[in-house]
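Subject: GapR-like DNA-binding domain-containing protein structure
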Amino acid sequence: MAENTDERLRLLIERVERLEEEKKGISDDIRDVYNEAKAVGYDIKIMRAMVRLRKMKPDDRREIDMLMDTYKSALGID
């Protein structure tokens, strides 16, 4: 029984390692896209913010916008 458990653990660890390697590759690809965008003049910080906004549900985005407006108003930021 311990051998079977040990084998399963080893297989699970190996799967995680493969996925981590894939994740690194994808992260490298994303970095390359941002570098390409920067090279043609796009603002990377703004692009990252847009990606975050597009991931949000519309209601969540509206709530964030409303809160930002409230905070800006309280701080005297146009």
